[in-house]
Amino acid sequence: MATTADIRNGLVINYNNDLFQIIEFQHVKPGKGAAFVRTKLRSLTSSKVLDNTFNSGVTIYPVRVERREFQFLYKDEAGFNFMDSETFEQISLDEKLVVGADLMKEGQLVEILLNTENEAPLTCELPDVVELVVTYAEPGIKGDTANNPRKAVEVETGARIMVPMFIEEGDKLRIKTSSKEYVERVK
C-alpha cells in the first residue's frame, strides 16, 4: 500500500479492479480546500486513457512490475512474437498489448512490462523515437510553401505519417512513437 505522495510517472496501480499505468500527474494545492492529485491513467488491459483525481493522502495499491528488453521477431495469427534479449525465451503478445505496433519493424528492441507476481506481460512499449525509411511519397506541389504544408507518406512498416513537403521516397525519418509525429530527416 502507498499514498498519493508516492505517485510518479510510469507507476502501475490496481484501481477499480483493473491495472492502470500513470502517464502524467500534477499535485494541486488550491488556496481554499484540501490538496489533490490530478492524474492521467492508461488501462493496461484496454489501452483506454482516463483522467482521475485523487484526494491527497488517499491509499493507492501499486503493482510490482518489471521492465525487460525484448526483440521483435515477427507477427503471425497468434499475435506479435518477441524474444528476451537475455534468456532468449520467446513470448507472443496480443495486438492490443502493443502500443504503436504499426511503427515496429523486425529486429526492433522494445520494453515489455511484466507483472512480477505471475510473470504475465502487461504492455509493450517502443523506444521514444524510431528511424524508418519512406517507401511511398507523392511528389510535393511546387510553390506550395505557405502555412507549413504537409503530406502523407508511407514508411517501411506500413504506417502513414504526416511530413513536410520536401520528404521523398527513400529518405530515412526519425518518428516520435507516442504521437506518430515526424521529428527530423536522418542523414
Summarize it.
This protein has 187 residues and is an all-beta fold. The protein is built from no helices and 16 strands.
Explain what the structure shows.
With 187 residues, this protein is mainly β. The protein has strands spanning 2-3, 12-15, 18-28, 36-43, 49-55, 59-62, 65-76, 79-84, 90-93, 109-115, 121-125, 129-137, 150-155, 160-164, 172-176, 181-186. The strands form three sheets. The protein has a six-stranded antiparallel sheet, with no helix packed on it. A five-stranded antiparallel sheet has the order 9-8-7-10-11, with no helix packed on it. It is flat, with a radius of gyration of 20 Å. It has three domains: 2-62, Roll (SH3 type barrels), CATH 2.30.30.30; 65-125, OB fold (Dihydrolipoamide Acetyltransferase, E2P), CATH 2.40.50; 129-186, OB fold (Dihydrolipoamide Acetyltransferase, E2P), CATH 2.40.50.
Overall CATH class of the largest domain: Mainly Beta
Q: Counting H and I runs of at least 4 residues, what is the number of helices? A: 0
The SS-based structural class is: mainly beta
Largest sheet: 6 strands, antiparallel
Tally of strands: 16
Task: Provide the descriptors you would attach to this structure in a database record.
187 residues; OB fold (Dihydrolipoamide Acetyltransferase, E2P); SH3 type barrels; five-stranded antiparallel beta sheet; 54% strand; flat; 3 domains; six-stranded antiparallel beta sheet; mainly beta
